[in-house]
Specification:
The protein is an alpha+beta fold and about 900 residues long. About 40% of the residues lie in helices and about 25% in strands. It is globular.
Length: about 900
């Protein structure tokens, strides 16, 4: 008996397994074979190249439960989630696929058998649609299901005809609908009331039988295929006797947990918020587990929008707690049996969501304050798009959050203006996009892989090997007779050259035949197994079919191996020191250096960094063996191996371990790269830089070997030069202090950079003191206007940093006051404006300083409503006086 969402999934997959289908695991949510797609949004995404014929599998029948997200780009359900019974950001798509094997009749037969016998649905509750021109499908449903003709509905629109694009595989669809009963509004498909909740599509069968060659031409495919998609949540709802996906077992639990944490009841005014929280939690957990981090760009921005929308609804419920991070454990306990990546990423998920909740709390208070201020000036129930964009651009406040907040107040946002500003912001990034090469050039690698199969890689055990040249490519075409100095790509039946992957750069070296020598400048691989030797013919000739000697640059490879092994030890030390939430986000392993990007929300302090550095060197000094084993990904992960999030591994993986078997393993990772055989061969290791590259992602750069020695030598030289320069700079400052009769004793002996800053600050205050006491350099005027004291102060030579001190002193000690300050120093003009807090509802320092800047012929200026500043080019005393008079008159 089917009781749960898990039961629905297992029944589907096991049914098709019995019918000869291979159960294929879900691909990651980030598409690996389609950079144009934001997220995997259907079951066929991972099989796209199989359907188009450019990739072949060792099976022709498959079944999957595919993770899908529809929350960005063309396929975007985000705004509907929480307010309808069926919309989700994340959902699972059950599917069965035939790649040129069975076709229409068998697909319909399987579908009917599954839903009526395995799932036990009543024939009387079902009806189907077919494409209006697909008489074959109409007749098959009549034959197999025994439907009356009124239960087989012909649809003439594109709803029942699927295509991959303007060209390519396409074909008619047949959709199966379930009737939830006349207690719900809605009519059957094709009727005017078809959008109601009564008749719900539960399964779509796509029959790929044509190829669209052009707009006018469509031909039959030689091997028709089948692609089906069943929404797991929809089918589970049917099997659990409800039309509402949020009433199924998983969502009932999550909604109740949301209510418990927020201390609210679930009723008509709160249910949408609880549903948003439950849905968005699931999407967030799966996206993070697949390697995505929240950011302000691309996919990361979609994740942040999802998370912040859920957090906004938690706030609407009046919760003072962080809700999402407290629900993670329950979600993972319910879904990790099918998706073990959730358990592996648990620490990372919790840390990431908690950090976003902290940021959201700060962002929300700032954003709400701005919205409330702007609402005073709202006309026609519309918030200006520029305000909504400012909230997004400056405070990370997504548009849909602004809309959600304004919705109960019946206020809309000028989205047209918002979109224009957003498009302008993206234009530069769009122009810089280079793409990933033409389809024509890419296609040849598929053809060569299809023709020759995978390149045999022997480079783990050998840096020199014999091989046969099987193809020479130049400019996307086969090139039979390359000449000296020609650049080309050589393919061989086997190779010892490592191709760039997993962050490790490709090998360099030579390929020699009896007639010529080819220098390999880089090695890449296409589709994971076709190795491409990229380089130049430096001597003689080479031909297809010739035997060749392939030899890797051994010295370069040795440094790469050492750096790669060091990267593994660095990863282990980071997890040991910072926590298990640390996960690889990218890496570079070259002969000269290594770089490691990882998930961590805070800057690593010097003490932690030293501990990490020392720990790596400790691992190295143990001189432990580096061993390689081949095993299944599941077994490797059960043994504790670290794997990349968002990566889909094959049936067998290489597991690299470092450590003493009698003691403990320091590092255990899934990795296809090359490594040293003993850790001591890595040599001395040193971290040279730690930085942030994006929200929640840190980067460490490190050196070893000769590159480290050279770096330390240059660093020592630079350090000595810096010390001498700083001593000279300090002496100059001390002499200036003496000229102003200041105290110099604590600055006379150089110690560190802080001493220079302290001396400069002390000098600035002495200068300010002298200027303020000199009537020729400190010109002050005050006027009273509408009970407000407006002071304008022009100073000659006052350091710009002292302006703020001057203004803060004035506005804190004087109510009903505005102060305008200008300093003319070193051929520059520095402006500052202060407004006392009791006048902030009438005056804005930012607006005043921008007005002064524009009159000075410059743009810019910023700060807060109570204090703002700007800078500009040199001007005359007379001009700045006139500008101040004009601005004061207009206040």
């Amino acid at each position: 008996m089917i009781k749960t969402l898990k039961d629905t999934r297992e029944t589907f997959k096991n049914f098709f397994k019995k019918k000869g289908h291979k159960i294929v695991s879900s691909s990651p949510l980030i598409p690996q074979n389609d950079p144009t797609l934001m997220f995997a949004n259907s079951g066929m995404v991972q099989f796209k190249n199989v359907f188009t014929g450019i990739e072949k599998k060792d099976y022709n029948r498959a079944t999957t439960s595919q993770k899908c997200v529809r929350a960005g780009g063309k396929h975007n359900d985000l705004e509907n989630v929480g307010y309808t019974p069926r919309h989700h950001t994340f959902f699972e798509m059950l599917g069965n696929f035939s790649f040129g094997d069975y076709f229409k009749e068998q697909a319909i037969f399987y579908a009917w058998e599954l839903i009526t016998k395995e799932y036990g649905l009543s024939k009387n509750k079902l009806c189907v649609t077919v494409y209006s021109e697909d008489q074959e499908a109409f007749d098959l449903w009549k034959k197999i299901a025994g439907f009356d003709e009124n239960k087989i509905i012909k649809i003439a629109t594109s709803d029942n005809f699927w295509s991959m694009g303007d060209t390519g595989p396409c074909g008619p669809c047949s959709e199966i609908f379930y009737d939830h009963g006349d207690q719900l509004f809605g009519g059957p498909p094709g009727s005017k009331d078809e959008d109601g909740d009564r008749f719900i599509e539960i399964w779509n069968l796509v029959f790929m039988q044509y190829e669209q060659v052009s707009k006018e031409k469509r031909i039959n495919l030689p091997k028709p295929s089948v692609d089906t998609g069943m929404g797991l949540e929809r089918m589970t709802a049917v099997l659990q006797g409800t039309h509402d996906n949020y009433e199924i077992d998983l969502f009932k639990e999550l909604v109740n947990l949301s209510a418990e944490i927020t201390n609210t009841k679930v009723y008509d005014k709160t249910i949408s918020s609880h549903r948003v929280i439950s849905d968005h939690l699931r999407a967030s957990c799966f996206l993070i587990a697949d390697g995505l981090m929240p950011s302000n760009e691309g996919r990361g921005y979609v994740l942040r929008r999802i998370m912040r929308r859920a957090m906004r609804h938690a706030n609407t419920l009046g919760s003072k707690d962080f809700v999402l991070s407290k629900m993670v454990d329950h979600l993972i306990s319910r879904m990790s049996s099918e998706y073990n990546e959730l358990e592996r990423a648990k620490d990372l998920i919790k840390e990431t969501i908690f950090n976003e909740e902290e940021k959201f709390e700060s962002m929300l208070s700032k954003g709400m304050k701005i919205i409330k201020e702007e609402m005073k000036d709202i006309k026609d129930k519309t918030l200006k798009g520029e305000i909504a964009f400012k909230l997004y651009d400056t405070y990370g406040f997504p548009l849909d959050l602004t809309q959600d907040y304004l919705k109960p107040l019946d206020i809309t946002v000028d989205t047209k203006q918002f979109d224009q500003l957003m498009e302008r912001r993206k234009e530069e990034a769009r122009k810089s996009w280079k793409g990933s090469g033409s389809d024509k050039i890419e296609k040849i690698w598929y053809e060569l892989k299809d023709q020759f199969g995978a390149t045999e890689f022997v480079g783990y055990n050998s840096e020199k090997t014999e091989a046969k040249i099987i193809s020479i490519i130049k400019d996307g075409k086969e090139y039979k007779n390359p000449k000296k100095n020609d650049t080309a790509v050589l393919l061989t039946n086997q190779t010892c050259f490592y191709a760039e992957s997993g962050g490790q750069v490709g090998d360099r070296g030579t390929i020699k035949t009896e007639s010529g020598t080819f220098r390999v400048k880089d090695t890449q691989k296409f589709f994971g197994s076709l190795f491409l030797h990229i380089g130049v013919l430096i001597d003689g000739e080479i031909r297809i079919g010739e035997d060749a000697i392939l030899e890797v640059d051994k010295s370069r490879r040795a440094n790469i191996k050492s750096n790669h092994s060091a990267t593994h030890l660095l990863h282990a030390a980071l997890r040991e020191q910072l926590g298990n939430h640390v996960a690889q986000r990218g890496s570079y392993v070259g002969p000269d250096r290594l770089r490691f990007d990882f998930s961590h929300s805070k800057q690593i302090n010097k003490i932690e960094l030293n501990k990490i550095n020392n720990r790596v060197n400790y691992f190295i000094q143990q001189d432990s063996r580096v061993t390689t084993r081949l095993m299944s990904p599941d077994k490797a992960i059960k043994e504790g191996a670290t794997a990349l999030f968002g990566e889909k591994y094959g049936d067998e993986v290489r597991v690299i371990s470092m450590g003493n078997n009698k003691d403990k393993i320091f590092s255990l990772e899934l990795c296809g790269g090359t490594h040293v055989d003993k850790t001591n061969k890595i040599g001395e290791f040193s971290i040279i830089n730690e930085s942030s590259i994006s929200s929640g992602v840190r980067r460490i750069e490190a050196l070893r070997g000769d590159e480290l020695k050279l770096f330390l030598k240059n660093k020592n030289t630079a350090s000595q030069e810096k010390i001498q320069n700083n001593k000279k700079k300090l002496l100059e400052i001390v002499n200036l202090i003496k000229n102003l009769n200041g105290e110099t004793k604590k600055f006379e002996k150089f110690e560190d950079d802080k001493q220079i800053n302290d001396a400069q600050n002390y000098l600035n205050k002495l200068i300010a003191k002298n200027i303020l006491s000199d009537e020729n350099k400190n010109m002050i005027n005050s006027t009273i206007k509408d009970n407000t004291t407006i002071t304008n102060q022009i100073l000659i030579g006052l350091p710009a940093k002292e302006i703020r001190v001057l203004i803060d002193h004035n506005t804190k000690n004087n109510k009903n006051s505005i102060i305008l300050v200008a300093s003319l120093e070193n051929k520059k003009t520095s402006i500052g404006v202060g407004v006392s807090k009791d006048l902030l509802d009438k005056y804005n320092a930012i607006q005043i300083v921008k007005k002064i800047s524009s009159l000075l012929g410059s743009e810019g200026g910023g700060g807060r409503k109570d204090f703002a500043q700007s800078g500009g080019n040199e001007t005359t005393l007379k001009n700045i006086k006139n500008i101040f008079d004009k601005v004061i008159k207009e206040l």
